[in-house]
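Before we proceed, please read the two lines closing this message. Report back on whether the structure tokens fit the sequence:
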Amino acid sequence: ETWKGKARADEVVNVRQLGGTVGDEEMIVHGSDPLKVGSEVILFLDADEAAPRFYIVGLAQGRYLVDRSGPEVRLARDLRDLRPTKGASLTAAKAETGLRLESLRTRVRALAR
């Protein structure tokens, strides 16, 4: 499902994240929460102009996990691993849970007009 942009519902998009493992070497990027195979997520993406791929906007800030275990679909994201840059303040770095999917969808579509 696309809330803003031109991607079709059946279109596959490539998402690139910072960090990863090659052999015995691992690179961890604080604030980046790796996607897990099979998890359902809402992503805020920005296109890479040089290649047909996307990046998650704002690292972990641009990703919500979808929870369908209750009567309403809810979203969650964990921002506790974010580190502010020098001179910046980050007072809301915490785990967020309980946001209704429909509320976020409505807000994004209203702002995208």
Q: What stands out?
A: The chain has one helix and nine strands. Residues 101-112 form the longest helix (12 residues). The two ends are 17 Å apart (CA to CA). The beta strands are 15-16, 20-22, 25-27, 41-43, 45-47, 54-56, 63-67, 74-78, 95-100.
